C-alpha cells in the first residue's frame, strides 16, 4: 500500500436503523485511488454502507472519516429519482455542476462545453432536449453517469450501477469506471456480478452485515468466504441483547 | 358588445381593486402552485389553507375584521400546522398526508367554532369565502407584497427546489440546502394562502394556486413555461370570473374559482401535453 493518506477510514463503525445494526463493527481504511467492489447477499448492508460514507446516515457507533468530504459523488439505486418531473436530460446532467455553480452561479461557455462532452462520453448526444420521462432505464443510467462525470469528484460511490442494464451499456459505463480509476479517483461500487468484480475490480469488500473479508479480490472471493457470507441470518433476533463488543 | 369585457372595470373602483388583487394573487400563487403540484403536495396546500382558519379566527375574536390581526393569526396557525404535521410524519409511522388531514379537520372545526363564538353568519361567510369585491388599500398592498416576496424567493430557491423534487438524495449529497429550502417553501405556501384568504376566503384560497397549476401541466412540459402559463391562467380566470359575477350577479369568489375550473377542464380536454383529445386521437405513429 502507498503512503498516501486513506480516502476513507472506518473506526469500528456500526450503521443501522432503529438500534438494529445493518453494518456491524467495520474497521479499516480505503486507500485513495482504490477501485473497490462491495459484494454480499441482499440485506447485507451494502447500500447502508454507502449512505454512511456519503453522510446521509449517521453511524450508531464509531466514526467514518472521509478526507474528501465535499468531494463525494454518489449514485444511489436508480429507483429513487422522480422520472415524471418535467426536466430535460441536459438540465439533469447539468446538476453535476452544483459544487461549482451552487445556488446562483451561472453556467459558463466552458461549462456548456463540458456538459456536451459528458453527454458525448456516455453516448447521449442528441438527447439534450428530451424530457427525462422518455428515457429508458439504460439511457437514464447513462445520463446519471454523465452527471457523475461533471461532478468531477475524487471519491465516487455507485450503488448497483449495472442492475437491469444491458450488456452494451454496462460495457460502456464500465469503461468510464476504468477511466476514473486511471485518473486516480477512488471508486466504490456495490455489485452482484462476481465475474465482473473479478475482471474489473482489484479490491473487494465482502460483507454480510459483519465484514467477512476485505482485500485483494482474488483472495476475498474464495469459495469459503462466499459460503460464509451466504450463511448470514437475515431476520433480526427480536430479543437481541445490547452489543458489548469493544467496550472497555 | 366588446365593452362588456372592460366597462365594469372602467366604471367601478371596486372592480378595479378586485382585478388588481386577483392579478397579485395569481403572480405569487401560480408558481407556488406549480411547485406544490410537482412535489405531489397539492392536497397539502389544500389542508394548509384550512389550517389557517383558526388563527385568522382568533385574530377576528380579538380585533374583529382587522387585516393585521387576521393575517398574523393566519400565518401563525399555518406555520404551526405545517411544522406539526411534518414532525408527526417524521417521528411516527403516520404519513404526512394522513397527519395533515387530521390537523386540517381539527383546524376547520375549531376555526368555525371560534368565529361563531362572537360573529354573525355574515362574518362566517366572509371568513370562509372572502370578500374580493371589498379589497381596501392595505389589503391590496399586502397582496402585492406577498407576490413580490414570493417571486423573488422562488428565483433564489429555484435550483434547490427543482433538485429537491427530482432527486432529493442527490441534493443531500452535494448540499445542505434541502431542509431550509423546504421550510422556506412551506413558508411561501402559507403566506400566499393567507393572502388568498383575504380575497377568496379559507375554502377557496387554494383554488387560485392549484387550478391554474394543474391546468398549466397540460400545455407545456417545461417548468419555467409552466409557471408562466399558470400565472396567465390565474389572471385570465380572475378577470373572466369577475366579469361573470358582475353580469350574472353571482358571488365573486366562487365565480373566479369556477372560471379557473373551466380553464382546467378545457386544458384537460384540449391540452397539447397529454390532453384527453390527444390521447383519444394521437394520429398515426411516426417512423422514428
In short:
With 248 residues, chain A is an alpha/beta fold. Chain A has helices spanning 46-54, 89-94, 98-101, 109-121, 137-151, 167-182, 194-200, 217-220, 223-230; strands spanning 6-17, 20-31, 35-39, 61-66, 72-75, 155-159, 186-190, 203-208, 210-216.
Please specify the SSE layout and strand pairing.
The complex is a heterodimer of chains A (248) and B (288).
Chain A lengths: L5 E12 L2 E12 L3 E5 L6 H9 L6 E6 L5 E4 L13 H6 L3 H4 L7 H13 L15 H15 L3 E5 L7 H16 L3 E5 L3 H7 L2 E6 L1 E7 H4 L2 H8 L18
Parallel strand pairs in A: 3-7, 3-8, 5-6, 6-7
Antiparallel strand pairs in A: 1-2, 1-4, 8-9
Chain B lengths: L6 H5 L1 H26 L3 H22 L3 H25 L4 H23 L2 H9 L7 H30 L1 H7 L3 H27 L2 H10 L6 H26 L3 H19 L5 H5 L8
Describe the fold and architecture.
The complex is a heterodimer of chains A (248) and B (288). Chain A has two domains: 1-68 and 154-248, Rossmann fold (3-Layer(aba) Sandwich), CATH 3.40.50; 84-150, no CATH class. In chain A, 33% of the residues lie in helices and 25% in strands. Chain A has helices at 46-54, 89-94, 98-101, 109-121, 137-151, 167-182, 194-200, 217-220, 223-230, and strands at 6-17, 20-31, 35-39, 61-66, 72-75, 155-159, 186-190, 203-208, 210-216. In chain A, helix 4 (109-121) crosses helix 5 (137-151). The model of chain A has no long low-confidence stretch (mean pLDDT 88). Chain B is mostly helical. Chain B has one domain (7-271): ABC transporter involved in vitamin B12 uptake, BtuC. Chain B is built from 13 helices and no strands. Classes of the chains: A alpha/beta (248), B mainly alpha (288).
